[in-house]
Amino acid sequence: MTERLYYKDPGLLSFQGTIIETVESGGKHLTVLDKTAFYPTSGGQPHDTGLLNSVAIFDVTESDGNIQHISNAPVGSRGETVRGEVDIGRRRYFRQLHTAQHILSSVFIELYEFETVSVHLGEDYGAIELKQPSLEEDQLLKAEQLSNEYILQSLPVEIIFADAQEAQKLPLRKKPARQGTIRIIKIGEIDYSACGGTHCYNSSEVGLIKIISSEKQRSNILINFLAGTRAKEDYDKRFEVTDRLSKQLTCAVDELKLRFDKIIDENKQYRRQLGQLQNELLPIKIEEAAARAENLNGTNFVCMEVDGMDSKLAANFTTSLADKISGIALIQLEERIIIGVCDTINIEAKEIAQRFSSESNLKGGGGKTMAQLGGALKGQLNKYREVLVNILNEL
Questions:
Q1: Which of 92-101, 170-179, 372-381 has the lowest mean pLDDT?
Q2: Are 3-86 and 286-394 the same fold in CATH?
Q3: What is the DSSP letter of 75?
Q4: Pairing assessment for the beta strands 328-333 and 299-305 based on DSSP bridges
Q5: Which residues are bridge partners to 86 per DSSP?
Q6: Residue 333's Cα: distance from chain center in Å?
Q7: Rounded distance, CA 199 to CA 98, Å?
Q8: What are the helix and strand counts (H, E) for the chain?
Q9: Model confidence over 300-341: pLDDT tens digits?
């Protein structure tokens, strides 16, 4: 059984261990040591990465009490002493994120008695699932504020080992069901949790907790959050964007929302006005397009691209054009193909759409006189015209 060095010292990054087992499977090499500082994927926390004897370890798993270090090349032979180096950035991130999760979960208990029923510690963000059907915005804000207050208090993060009876006497957030020695993470006096993960030495190392979203999950609420270095990186990105926008719009950052609300309202008005003008000009555009009609085997058809129309107006234009020429209109609007068919033609729009789906890998469908497909490539109108011509040749 592998001795887990991170159990007692989660900040340990360099160590030496002896190989007790090696296995090659499917081109991958699994190395088991007598002791390791590498954390395996477990408890909602992803694995460490790093080096063993300069060989890259890209995954770490656990099996029957042994920790397997997975690499693309052999690390060494059985009985050989190897040197391990855990990736410092990845370890730091998950120590911050996991400690942040404990703080956040304890705060939701303290403030609202909302229990955490599941945890996800991902590469980009963390998440806790609360046993609660709904949550107000001000509750999220208060939880975030109190969590960051505990970070500022520099609460010590201690590791306690206790047997099952001793653990029952502690104010654990959740009582463990297992027997034997239990590893407990204690954060000041705000949280006692049975946990095998890696954590900070002090709450101040978390740096910052930022709740980024909440969503319904089953009958519960999922809270997504950032911590530490990821929270700082997110702030840097947002600062860069808001700073650039405030300079372009010549306003203060706290005025951006009002400015954008105004721009959005104005844009809606302009779109409505443009739509009205386009609708008024539609008969003229239909006449111009009808003049471009071709005839094949007695069927009139038009293939053309249009720009600047909304989808509803473009659909109306296509079906009206098909009626005007008593034939078929094929219109490309950016990545969309719209097919209009006059009801006097002996083929339906949905049949044409089916042929396009099979021959041009477009997705969509329709009815008797109109069909729409997505996934069209710009500049490929001639290709789509050829498909239509082939269809007309078969009529």
A1: 170-179
A2: no
A3: -
A4: parallel
A5: 50
A6: 30
A7: 6
A8: 8, 22
A9: 999 999 987 888 888 999 999 999 999 999 999 999 999 999
Every domain of the chain and the residues it spans: 3-86, 92-236, 286-394
C-alpha to C-alpha distances, 239 to 85, 233, 242, 261, nearest whole angstrom = 35, 10, 5, 20
Q: Are 70 and 89 a contacting pair, CB within 8 Å?
A: no
Distance from C-alpha of 44 to C-alpha of 59, rounded to nearest angstrom: 15
- Please check whether residue 322 is in contact with residue 354, taking contact to mean a CB–CB distance below 8 angstroms: no
Residue among 342, 335, 350 at smallest CA distance from 290: 342
| Closest listed residue to residue 271, CA positions, set 313, 210, 225 | 313
Q: Is the domain covering 3-86 a CATH 2.40.30.130 domain?
A: yes
* Residue 268 CB contacts under 8 Å (≥ 6 apart), including other chains: none
Residue range 148-166, pLDDT digits in tens: 999 999 999 999 999 888 8
What pTM value is reported for the model? 0.74
Range 92-236 classified under CATH 1.20.5.320 = no
> Which fold, 286-394?
Diaminopimelate Epimerase; Chain A, domain 1 (3.10.310)
